[in-house]
Protein: DUF6049 family protein
Amino acid sequence: MAEAADFQGTSASPARRWLRRAGALLTGAPLLAGLLQLPAAAPAQAASSDTVSVSVDSLSPSAPTDGDTLTVSGTVTNNGKQAVTDAHVGLRVGPQLTTRSEIDSVARHSDELQSSTGSEVDEKYEEKFDKLAPGVAQHFTLSVPVDKLDLGEDGVYEFGVTLSGQTSAQAWDHVLGVQRTFLPWQPSEADTKTKTTFLWPLISTVHMTAKTGAGELQTPEFLDDDLAKELAPGGRLAQMVDLGKDLDVTWVIDPDLLASVDAMAAGNYRLQGADGTSTPGSREHQAIAKQWLAGLQKAVAGKEVVALPFGDPDLASLAHNGTSVTGSLSHLKEATDVAATTVKTVLHVTPSTDFAWPADGAVDPSIMKVATSAGADRVIARSDSLQETAGLPYTPSAPRPVGGGTTAVVADARLSKAFEGDLAKAGSATLAVQRFLAQSLQLNAQTDKQRSIVVAPQRMPTASQAQAMATALNALQGGTWSQPQNLTAAAKDKPDPGATTRIPSASSYPSSLSRQELPGTVFEQIARTQDKLDKFRVVLSDQSRVVTPFGRAINREMSTSWRGRGSAADGYRGGVEAWLDELADQVKLIDKSETKLSGRSATIPVTVQNNLVQPVGHLVLRLRSTMPTRLKIGGEAYYEQPVEISGGHSQSVKFTTSANANGRVTVIAQLYTEDGQEYGDPVTFDVKVTEVTPTVMLVIGGGVLLLVLAGFRMYTQRKRAAARQAEEDGPGTTGEDTDEPGNPGAPGDRLLEEPEETDSASGADDPEQPSDPAPDTAPESADPSGTGERVDR
Structure:
């Protein structure tokens, strides 16, 4: 229905073109009638449709005007088993195509011999080959003045290049191969020009991990060095910047790409290894990243820049599978908030964050709701999703108010998909360019109403696709029927009152896109990782060192670039969670073996280790007795103390215990955050209580007393004996004998010391009453625990 009135509003051509076109038709009519009267022609052509392939590698200018010379070059290849003789390559101008659907039809059958190709241009403009051997390719170049093509009124013409010749099986001149394309013909300025917005996307896959180095610079770690290949001269992203700088386009950028390139340009980045190690990145690649950023900064100066949420989150996956998981939408909000800051910091321009872009522009009510939940009030959709239902005879303008203050900016599907597929071959790229220009010109000719049309190509064009896009845009911007416009202006343009504003239902969402979505388990894992991050962050003195890299990694886990790459996505998420677990485990309790408690009271030390580079705090260590009737800690069933440890240190936290009975008691040590959440794994150990009883103490005391009395008796007896000996020896001899080394009084001195040594060993004055030669517990101490000792690693 939309094609029914495609002729409406077409401007009249000069009279001379009508006459010239009419003459050409009259001249070609007898020839066409003669061809139609050959009964064997159609079957013969059908049988030999694969005999010769024709490739149009270049067509210049893409949209010729009066006075131009059209140059066509390409190759012809004999794919058959027989040689082709008396061959020549010729140009043919077919009929004018009056609808966009006709253009599609010609493109679908561009190399089929059965379809009419129009009359051949004068033989002066052909190239001859005496013989085309099987398997041989021949290059050709043809140039013809445009006024020799006998083009009529303004519009799109089918244009063909054919190879004609003979074979031994078909010894008459006939067409053996053809390649059809399009010739846009608008030599003078159109009365009404279409305002065309072309999005130029700078988006890549995920490259950065959550890992950063321990130093002040927090050296980032990359999955691989693939980003450097894209940035290097000739690479995909290098081509996008080099080509885009001269085009009037709207740059659509994923801030994650800028953050990744900026991290690479800063130097000292590292590459993840297969065995868990990492290696330094190349200094050469660092220079490449710097050069690319400098070129991009110049390219976007004065141009509109649209920033997608950080990581380019998959809005459809989130809408269909993630909203039921608590916290999923908050990640989209965070990704949107950080987007503008990232772009402004790296590119020094203020971007627009008003636009959301679901995958392939496919929308339904849930996608629209999620897309606008983070603050964007304009959603880039595509016309093959939000299809026209009002029966308009032309393509309406892009903006559609869909309610709630939201505008759907509907990109034209035909123009947006024109550069998909493999365009590495010159022939494929040329056909894509000519088809794009033909659709654009035919769209402009539909009505005399000026409209705003948006082109939203694939998210990550290849280098060859980017080159084809740039070729088409250069022709379009230098043409006579279109004028450039940025995306914000297109979104603000006056909507067409007849255009549909009805968002398609969920059931109409393409199944091919549904199969590529992130499943609900992905968002559950993301929520689990976020929960672990929230618990870990509260103990850190510098949260930004962990929260920032992990927050951005979680954004990357939701990236649209994971579509069709499920295994890689699973590996990335697993790596992020595993690294977070490893970091959190750097703050832990040291395992304890069985502890022996001698006496009624003692202290039990529990060691907390911090292998992070930054101090940790806001932790509480709780020690709990499983049998408080036998062993109490701090006078209760459990006791807890605050913990603060410097980076790279350990700390022994001392707990006072009191025993009421002998036996084995299990004790549990557990770290908690200040808000009562368990942190890390508990440490469980046994305490063996060996308390000394009063009866045993009495026996020991009695034995000590007997030893003291016996020693005293021996001492007095020796003293009396010495006195009697002195009396018998007479006066004056006692002192000399006493001073001699062999004085019998010396053994008495040693004996005098023996009771004191025995008294000390008995432990009668020791309140601890040790019963084990090497007790595990220390006497009770009131000294506070320090911030920790350096960890020996």
Notes: The first helix runs from residue 15 to 36.
